Amino acid sequence: MAEPERQSATSNSPPSRPDYREFTYDMFITSAEGEESEVVRFANTVNAAIADGVYAYEVPRLEAQRTEVKAERPDGLRLNLLNFASYNYLGYAHHPAIIAAAKAALDQYGLGACSSPVQAGTLGLHTILEKKLSEFLGRPDTGVSLFSSGYAVNTGTISALIKRGHFVVADRSSHISILEGAQLARATLRLFEHNDPASLDAVLTEIGRGTQRVLVCTEGVFSAEGDFGALDRIVPVAKAHGAQLLVDEAHSFLLCGPNGRGVAEMMEVLDQVDYLVVTFSKALGAVGGALIARSDVARYVNWYARCRMFSAAIDPAVTAGVTRGLELGASREGAAARARLHANASLLRSLLDGKVPLGHSESWIVPVIFGAESLIVPLSDWLQRHGLDGSVMSFPAVPMNEARVRLFVTSEHSEEQLRRCASIILRAAAEFDFLLKASS
Amino acid sequence: MTKDHIFAVVKKYLLRTIDGVNPDDVEPSKSMKDLGASSLDLVEIVSLSMRELKVKVPRSELAKLNNIGGLVDLLYSVSLEQSNG
Fold first, then answer.
1. pLDDT tens track for A53-87
2. pLDDT digits 0-9 by tens, A366-402
3. By a Cβ cutoff of 8 Å, what residues of chain B touch chain A?
């Protein structure tokens, strides 16, 4: 593909219209009095980037999220992308056996569940999935509450179980769905430093033991950092203070641990987790999620998580596909895919280590931290035009000046693709000046 | 507009936004992160303060700040520039 001339990322010439090179998400969250509204300013900024042909977000894919994927921008630019931007970690979004199961469910049950799960939306397929999930986790007597999005599991569960006057104590790097769950509950939110048991201990000590409920929230894999939750050190602190514990395994369920149950299993604390959150949109390649908890708790959440009660149940095709994915994940094939995933992630990290900043990545998420938020738009565009798609993330999702492109490794990437990805990243690092000094 | 006034405005929004902060702990030498602010809290406190003070600070300047005192100084200097401009 011929590379069209692109705008200089470092030009100092004053912009004659909104300068998308300075685009950051937080600029449009609120609006100062007396200026154009944030909606208008945001639209103008995006439109300027589109007009210059550099807007690399929301680019429609034209096929399944395989390791190489065709996409087309609204201006007609066709892109052949090496896909490190989707979290289809095991390739289950397009696995033939899973697609076959989904097609069969579509034929039998139709397109949608067409009702809230508490009322008419619970299908036979849903109860099968609930049973499979609890069996897969080795907790056959436990309860399962299915949600139509992983985000909703956290907001729904936390706001159902935690009330005003209670405490949510969350890792500083927690997903926004956990923080919003606390807000929705009108609980008091306290943060502890990322993966730091001493910080958690200090917060819990300050709260003290009283009649109030305290919920500690952490994750299996932190999606911005790519590191594991230090569950082996966090869980004992939470338990010592009598707190309840929620662990979000969105990016780790089916991906690690002796049986693929996640980081809590890998760190041998699964039986101490009160509320286990899993999603179907990552390793299972679909959409939706579930809370796994004591059966009376799951029943309560079924009713009192308002985003579940007042929303349609997961659709039949996805439910059947996820169920089949769980079976595959529990099989020898699943174990082999996990081993490939881990080997692929190690290879990509080794190709980049010492050359570009990788933070503390130790999982299948490899963040390349390029730093300056002013690079977000030009770098995203450059990467796509050079054949690579990653997931760019910036403040306030990550700390200021620590903008990054996350590379989601999958079990399906070939060695050649991993090497090509690293090569493109290193060229980008040279072009945009984020090579580590020792390697430049 | 005095620095004391600006500090009072920032403190007001900080206490409204972050749970469980002791008002006596809000000092210029502390960072909002030290007081338990999330990144979104930070955006909210700065935006609300700018709106009340009618001061607009360039985004790139905010990235350089280390503590509440730095934010107050920045808001103060920009307010002077705006009133002189």
1. 999 999 999 999 999 999 999 889 999 999 999 99
2. 999 999 988 999 999 999 999 999 999 998 888 888 9
3. 19-20, 36, 38-40, 42-44, 47-48, 50-51, 54, 56, 59-60, 62-63
A19 contact residues in B (CB cutoff 8 A): none
Radius of gyration of chain A (CA): 22
- Per-residue pLDDT reduced to its tens digit, A293-330: 999 999 999 999 999 999 999 999 999 999 999 999 99
Distance of alpha carbon A244 from alpha carbon A167, whole angstroms: 10
Task: Tokens for A382, please give them.
Answer: 């450059």
Amino acid at A160: A
At A164 the three-state DSSP class reads coil
- Enter the ipTM: 0.78
Q: Any idea which fold A96-330 has?
A: Aspartate Aminotransferase; domain 2 (3.40.640)
B38 and A172 within 8 Å at the Cβ level: the answer is: yes
Mutation target for A interface from B47, B48, B66, B67: give the one with most A CBs within 10 A: B47
Q: Domain of B77?
A: 3-84
Q: Is B43 within 8 Å of A22 when comparing Cβ atoms?
A: no
Domain boundaries, chain A: 96-330, 332-371+379-440
Q: Which CATH number do you get for residue B13?
A: 1.10.1200.10
CATH of A332-371+379-440, one of 3.40.50.2000, 3.90.1150.10, 3.40.630.10, 2.60.40.10: 3.90.1150.10
List of chain B residues whose C-beta atoms are within 8 Å of the C-beta of residue A30: 43-44, 47-48, 51
Chain A residue with Cα closest to B65:
A400
Cα distances (Å, whole numbers) of residue A17 to A22, A35, A51, A413, B60: 12, 15, 11, 41, 18
**Run of H or E residues at A143:** strand A143-147
Q: Concatenated DSSP letters for A210-266?
A: SSS-EEEEEESB-TTT-PBP-HHHHHHHHHHTT-EEEEE-TTTTTTSSTTS--HHHH
Residues of A in contact with B40 (CB under 8 A): 29, 176, 179, 396
Interchain CB distance below 8 Å, A22 and B59: yes
**Domain count of the fold of chain B:** 1
More confidently predicted of A43 and A410: A410
Q: What pTM, to 2 d.p., does this model score?
A: 0.91
pLDDT one-digit tens code per residue, B11-64: 999 999 988 889 999 999 999 988 888 888 888 899 889 889 988 887 777 777
